[in-house]
Amino acid sequence: MEVHFTPELEAKLTHAAVQQGRRPDELVQEVLAEYFEEESRLVEAVARGEQSLRDGRYLTHEQVGERLQRFLKP
To answer: Label partner for 73 (CA 20 to 30 A): which of 13, 24, 56, 66?
Structure first.
């Protein structure tokens, strides 16, 4: 696979890789792996939230505010 970057983005990538003592392709692979891992976690969290809503397990805006107030009290 071949990926093309703008000159500006390629310069940033190269700079970051050099700062970390790595090759740019290694950095790109790590960044993409982390992105897809985080994307998967986000999709799963949204699915759990939607299921909780369907099950009637949720807080109203007012309930969230009350909990925050209790949490923030000294």
So the answer is: 56
